[in-house]
Amino acid sequence: MCDQELQAEVNAHRKHLNRVLEKGRSLEKSSQYDGEEVQQRNTHLATEWEELEAACDKRAIHLNRAITREQILLDCAELETRLSETLALVSTDEYGKNDLATQSLIKQHQVL
């Protein structure tokens, strides 16, 4: 499951959680039920939810860092290739065997 799908699912359940917590607060105030137990369960549920959201946030941060790292590695590989090609071009002792070859080499050096 990708991060956006996970976040969407968590957000979708947030509304349901709020309804459950509201019902729990109502039950807590009513004399029919053991208010202390309901309050403990409500508190536990709210705490667990906060931990889930914190874990989701932490996961998103790690994924963003991984994406940034991979992009940097790709950029480095591209630069290494470019530098390698450039070094090969400027390190050659070839001056061209004829006028056309010499002009081609000059154009390659001007591009650099």
From TrEMBL:
The record ties this protein, via CDD domains, to: SPEC
Q: Which UniProt keywords apply?
A: Actin-binding, Repeat
Gene3D superfamilies from the xrefs?
Answer: 1.20.58.60
Task: Tell me one GO molecular function of this protein.
Answer: actin binding
Q: Does the keyword Chloroplast apply?
A: no
Q: Which residues form a coiled coil?
A: none
Q: Does the keyword Plastid apply?
A: no
Q: Which domain of life is it from?
A: Eukaryota
Q: What is this protein called?
A: Tektin
Lineage summary: Eukaryota, Metazoa, Chordata, Craniata, Vertebrata
